[in-house]
């Protein structure tokens, strides 16, 4: 069990957050603040957060819900009712941060427009995470991680070169959007300490997607060529990507001539170093498929695990392709305490990744499990 006494030492101890977001992105932003010590109250409408029913489910929670709502408490409030409005007002009087992910028309319908809130509560920090941003022609359009991966080009550059565009295997916009929301809130807290006034922090899945394709936008302007899919490889470096071995597959990343020379020597193919087709990174990128074929011939003599250990010990970035669940027994994950005890005897979930930040060597603990649904009592 985590040491609950550590809560007093966490950076955001004493900060109260009302988290009225739902699904994944907004709640993950709230979970970051909760991990950092904030008192986060999850506000749900009487129907409950849709992420409670995302497969696989765990009673009134789910795999996703456990991850993005840990360290929070929950309260059901009908924001359309007079009783709900009164309860929200009561909570707002002692709240530092109010998080939403409502579209503009929803904010207006619920009388939760940021300007009005900050006028009523001058020190309040309002954080809003939307699909496409709060202004512009698409401000009122709904969106999910996958649909906005499509719009921002992430899908186009993901997948094999000769295959169809695919969604990234993890929710990069949801998790990334939640991170930007939390980063913005932290900056706003510092600013409020100086000005004694709250502020509005806004981000969106769309802006997150645009940021994730920054390289592709810059490269297109330089080359004039459209972005392409590179599979597990990279349009900038070679050799880079997935390679077959005698047993299993390995991902290798070579980012300089020095590393290339070291790599070729380790796989007993020093002849590749002086080959004109591979003497510079630009040439290696141009002849990447030929180079890959030559490398894979050399890798057949050992397993992916053996190659990863040999290359890694000798300064070549490389690691075997593993399943996510192999992290449960990964020696490095154990060494850095990446997975923390999940304090919930009712659930099969016993370990989850903690915040990927340590303070003086200590990772913020998971102090409490994601809350069960608060069933409102009949009025």
How would you sum up this structure in a few lines?
The chain is α/β, with parallel strands linked by helices.
List keywords for this structure.
13 strands, 379 residues, disordered N terminus, three-stranded antiparallel sheet
How would you characterize this protein structure?
It is a single chain. Helix content is 35%, strand content 14%. Strands 5-2-1-6-7-8 form a six-stranded parallel sheet, with helices on both faces. Strands 9-10-11 form a three-stranded antiparallel sheet, with helices on one face. A two-stranded antiparallel sheet has the order 3-4. Helix 1 crosses helix 7 and helix 7 crosses helix 8 (205-212). The radius of gyration is 24 Å and the shape is elongated. The protein has helices at 25-35, 63-68, 82-92, 104-109, 114-120, 145-151, 172-195, 205-212, 214-223, 257-266, 281-286, 288-299, 304-313, 331-335; strands spanning 16-19, 39-44, 57-58, 61-62, 72-76, 97-100, 125-130, 200-204, 240-244, 249-253, 318-320, 339-341, 351-353. With 379 residues, the chain is of the alpha/beta class. It has 14 helices and 13 strands.
């Amino acid at each position: 069990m985590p040491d609950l006494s550590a809560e007093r030492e966490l950076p955001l101890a004493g900060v109260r957050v009302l988290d009225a977001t739902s699904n994944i992105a907004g709640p993950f932003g709230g979970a970051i603040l909760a991990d950092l010590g904030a008192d986060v109250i999850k506000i749900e409408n009487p129907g409950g957060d849709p992420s409670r029913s995302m497969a696989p489910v765990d009673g009134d929670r789910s795999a996703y819900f456990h991850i993005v709502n840990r360290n929070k408490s929950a309260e059901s409030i009908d924001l359309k009712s007079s009783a709900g409005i009164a309860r929200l007002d009561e909570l707002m009087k002692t709240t530092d941060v109010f998080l939403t992910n409502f579209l503009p028309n929803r904010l207006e319908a619920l009388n939760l427009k940021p300007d009005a809130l900050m006028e009523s509560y001058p020190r309040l920090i309002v954080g809003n995470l939307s699909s496409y941003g709060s202004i512009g022609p698409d401000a009122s359009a709904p969106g999910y991680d996958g649909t906005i991966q499509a719009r921002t080009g992430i899908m186009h550059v993901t997948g094999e070169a000769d295959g169809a565009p695919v969604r990234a295997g993890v929710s990069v916009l949801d998790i990334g959007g939640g991170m930007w929301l939390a980063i913005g809130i932290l900056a706003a807290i510092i600013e409020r300490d100086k000005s004694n006034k709250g502020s509005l922090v806004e981000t969106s899945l769309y802006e997150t997607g645009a940021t994730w394709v920054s390289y592709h936008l810059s490269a297109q302007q330089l080359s004039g060529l459209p972005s392409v899919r590179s599979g597990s490889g990279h349009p900038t470096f070679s050799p880079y990507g997935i390679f077959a071995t005698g047993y299993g597959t390995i991902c290798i990343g070579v980012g300089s001539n020095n590393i290339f020379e070291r790599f070729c020597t380790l796989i007993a193919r020093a002849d590749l170093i002086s080959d004109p087709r591979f003497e510079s990174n630009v040439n290696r990128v141009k002849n990447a498929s030929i180079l890959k074929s030559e490398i894979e011939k050399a890798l057949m003599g050992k397993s992916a695990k053996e190659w990863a250990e040999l290359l890694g010990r000798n300064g070549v970035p490389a690691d075997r392709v593993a399943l996510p669940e192999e992290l449960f027994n990964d020696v490095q994950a154990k060494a850095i305490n990446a997975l923390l005890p999940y304090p919930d005897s009712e659930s099969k979930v016993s370990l989850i990744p903690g915040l990927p930040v340590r303070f003086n060597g200590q990772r913020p603990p998971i102090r409490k499990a994601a809350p069960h649904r608060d069933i409102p009592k009949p009025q």
